[in-house]
Amino acid sequence: MVGLFLSITFAITLGSVEIRPTTVWKIALSKIPMFTQWIEVDWSKGEQTIIWDIRFPRVLMGAIVGAGLSVVGVAIQSLVRNSLADPYVLGVSSGASVGATSVIIFGAFSMYGQYALSFGAFTGSLVSIILIFTLSRIGGQNSTVRLLMAGIAISAILSAITSLLVFSAPNEHGIGTVLFWLSGSLAGGKWEYLTIPTLIVVICLIVLMAQYRSLNAMLMGEESAGTLGVNTVQFRKLLLVITALLTGVIVSIAGSIGFVGLMMPHIVRVMVGSDHRRVLPVSALFGAIFLIWVDVVARLAFAPEELPIGILTALCGGPFFIWLMLRSSYSFGGSGR
């Protein structure tokens, strides 16, 4: 937690305008009624705008998105019982992108008002994960190769559909918005966008933490989990909904950001073992810290231009994925090949 606190603090101070760390938390505390009278105002109005209205919500969004992607990575790896699984790799993010793109360009799901983007992304991710999981099990038990092949196939189809939607866009502004958004970005971070994603990430994390014994049992296989009292059919449905919900909400606010859900759970398992009672919270923490600093690099590397954050996570995650595939054994909790 200290690392997360320091990451948030220094990420906010970095930028074209340098700001002292003490100023960051003075401004934050001044927004809390009980502390207002104890805080001496020694900052400018410009500094307050930069910190409170621009950088603070963006950094917090990075923490929420990073934590959410890591948690969904743990969930989906448990669902398919393989450490190569990830919403981006398996094409779940592509499904969310189709739903979200249809909302941005054509106003689909407009009946849901401000929640249209989240609902569209959730619907797309849920449909895609069901298709991928069903396709991978046709003709036999699930396996790493079949799962990856199904994910690649569905991802390619959904990516093509997204491209078709962009090509059919009625205006250029919508095209530009979607193309930048598809590469992942936290540039749209605002306070009003944080409430729902934060609640969903926290609730899903709590639900999964409460089910850590079932998650541990699933690593040994469905039959073994069943003998331990786990209702595998219902539990898989729960994991499907959580995976789709987290992926949909995250994609709706930050676009398609890949490989975070692949890297963080795997790194954490090496450090703390496979017990989900530790894996879940530590993965969320590491994911939050990781994405905060990736976003800092995205903001500063080519300043004043901003690099889409998905490019940087792919540069990190691509080699990591190849390394996992080249290892002599890359599954966990049993054979996942």
Automatic annotation (TrEMBL):
SUPFAM superfamilies: ABC transporter involved in vitamin B12 uptake, BtuC. Gene3D superfamilies: ABC transporter involved in vitamin B12 uptake, BtuC (1.10.3470.10). It is a multi-pass membrane protein. The keyword Cell membrane applies. CDD domains: TM_ABC_iron-siderophores_like (cd06550). Its main location: membrane. The chain crosses the membrane at residues 59-76, 88-109, 115-135, 147-171, 191-210, 238-262, 282-302, 309-326. InterPro entries: ABC_BtuC-like, ABC_transptr_permease_BtuC. Keywords: Cell membrane, Membrane, Transmembrane, Transmembrane helix, Transport. It is found in: Cell membrane. Belongs to the binding-protein-dependent transport system permease family. FecCD subfamily. This is ABC transporter permease. It comes from Brevibacillus porteri.
